[in-house]
Specification:
By secondary structure, the chain is mostly helical. Helices cover about 75% and strands about 0% of the residues. It has seven helices and no strands. It has helices at about 1-25, 30-55, 70-85, 90-115, 125-130, 135-150, 155-180. Helix 2 runs antiparallel to helix 5 (about 125-130) and helix 3 (about 70-85) runs antiparallel to helix 7. The longest helix is centred in the middle third of the chain and has 28 residues, at about 90-115. It is globular, with a radius of gyration of 17 Å.
Length: about 200
Amino acid sequence: MLCRLVQADLLCLRAETVAYATLLARFPDAPSSELFIRLNDALRSRLPELERCADVLSVNRSGPPYQPRTFDAFAFPGTVSWVALHADRAAAALAIHTDFAAYFPLCQELVRLLDASGTDVPEEFRRCYDTPPPSELLDLAAEVVEDGLRHGDAADTATAVADLLRAGLDGFWQFAAHGPSALRSGAGSPAPAAG
């Protein structure tokens, strides 16, 4: 599971870096611009930690190749990419807030459970994943949500986009916990090969 988590995180980090740059281009005014710049800085500073984890755990850094059974690994990057292209300020910022508020505590809980079970966890993994939520970024994301709402962004749309992102994050955790799985519905399934 540790290897899949690091592999999925590396895949997500690439998508998030591009997504936040896209959001910065779409919303260049403060406070949105400050949020997207700081998010990109945070991701770039996290990359070396993830790469050290990948090296220690012998993880393939290129991420899982797309196949129908690896759909979960792409759920979060796909959602983040959609958010970058289509969400308004409030929706994007609430999605980011939702992501960080859920992801970091779950990672800390995972490290705690691994320790409680006596699992040998590399120190590089512990340093990378036993990290509290970035309160300054959460506060800034909340400020951007408020700014967007003041400028006419719809609260119900922001909530719906945050729910969409949470579903993408669920896919991330499904892949990390269980590896490739079959699609849960027929939607998006490749057509059977003609024979």
